[in-house]
């Protein structure tokens, strides 16, 4: 009788401790406790002082589409420098200098420039992202901290986190992680009161150097009153290059953008 009681108690304890992993959907990754998952996804962040990214891009909206070559340079928490060129001829066409407090852009073809606040950038590119959001996207890191107020869900192929404080923040967020490296596969953010939502996908992470994993492709789908799509196909990524520079100037002959 005593052995039977011990057996039953052991079974109950085991079932209680593992219950959240019992009914995983087919194709879901192995079960992880919340603390373990948080530790792994935070440890997987790309850490850098400077980051240099080159590749080809494509932007599409209702009234405009354009392919381009790009070079992006990041100075962590300080500066995002962007240089765009013609995809065939390689002729420089635009350059941008983005900090936490200001934005400056030059457009070589029309000989125009723009200066203003990051919040004003939406009118120029149709994407409502702040400095830290852009930095997270371009460094292939977590878009938000995910420190609390979320629940863990299991879906085929990925771990998924969903925020639980929607009523308080009026912001719906979902995050999917690759189980192989705990890097973000997809961010989904919807702000009904602000009238926009966006989805970011990081396709196929590969190792680009010591403690640096970066996707082969970044895709941004943005929806507000209009739709916009941006695809960045990555060719080269380098971090902490000691010779990196961030040149920028506005020629005196350029006129303000209309």
Can you put this structure into words, describing what you see?
By secondary structure, the protein is of the alpha+beta class. It has a single domain (41-243), classed as Lipoprotein localisation LolA/LolB/LppX (outer membrane lipoprotein receptor (LolB), chain A). The protein has helices spanning 2-18, 34-43, 121-125, 131-138, 166-169, and strands at 50-61, 65-75, 79-85, 92-98, 103-107, 112-116, 150-155, 158-163, 172-177, 184-191, 196-209, 212-223, 227-239, 255-256. Strands 7-8-9-10-11-12-13-1-2-3-4-5-6-14 form a 14-stranded mixed β-sheet, covered by helices on one side. Strand 4 and strand 5 (103-107) form a beta hairpin. The longest helix has 17 residues, at 2-18. The chain is globular. The chain starts with a helix and ends with a strand. Mean pLDDT is 85; it is low at 1-22.
Give a brief rundown of this model.
With 258 residues, this protein is of the alpha+beta class.
- Calculate the mean pLDDT score and round it: 85
Structural classification: alpha+beta
Q: What is the CATH topology descriptor?
A: outer membrane lipoprotein receptor (LolB), chain A
N- and C-termini, Cα separation = 87 Å
Top keywords for this entry?
258 residues; alpha+beta; outer membrane lipoprotein receptor (LolB), chain A; 14-stranded mixed beta sheet; globular; disordered N terminus
């Amino acid at each position: 009788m005593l052995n039977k009681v011990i057996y039953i108690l052991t079974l109950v304890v085991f079932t209680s401790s593992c219950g959240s992993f019992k009914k995983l959907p087919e194709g879901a990754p192995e079960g992880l406790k919340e603390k373990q998952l948080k530790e792994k996804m935070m440890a997987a962040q790309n850490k850098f002082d400077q980051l240099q990214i080159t590749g080809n891009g494509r932007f599409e909206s209702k009234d405009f589409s354009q392919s381009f070559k790009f070079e992006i340079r990041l100075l962590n928490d300080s500066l995002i420098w962007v240089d765009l060129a013609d995809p065939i001829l390689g002729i420089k066409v635009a350059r941008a200098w983005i900090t936490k407090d200001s934005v400056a852009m030059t457009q070589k073809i029309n000989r125009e420039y723009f200066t203003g606040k990051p919040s004003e950038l939406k009118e120029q590119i149709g994407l409502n992202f702040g400095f830290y959001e852009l930095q997270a996207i371009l460094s292939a890191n977590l878009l938000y901290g995910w420190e609390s107020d979320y629940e863990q869900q299991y879906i085929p192929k990925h771990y998924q986190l969903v925020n639980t404080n929607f009523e308080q923040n009026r912001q719906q967020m979902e995050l999917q992680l690759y189980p192989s490296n705990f890097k973000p596969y997809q961010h989904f953010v919807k702000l009904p009161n602000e009238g926009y939502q966006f989805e970011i996908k990081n396709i196929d992470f590969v190792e680009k150097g010591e403690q640096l994993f970066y996707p082969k492709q970044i895709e941004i789908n943005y929806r507000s009153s209009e739709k916009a799509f941006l695809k960045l196909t990555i060719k080269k990524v380098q971090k902490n290059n000691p010779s990196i520079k961030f040149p920028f100037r506005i020629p005196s002959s350029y006129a303000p953008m209309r």
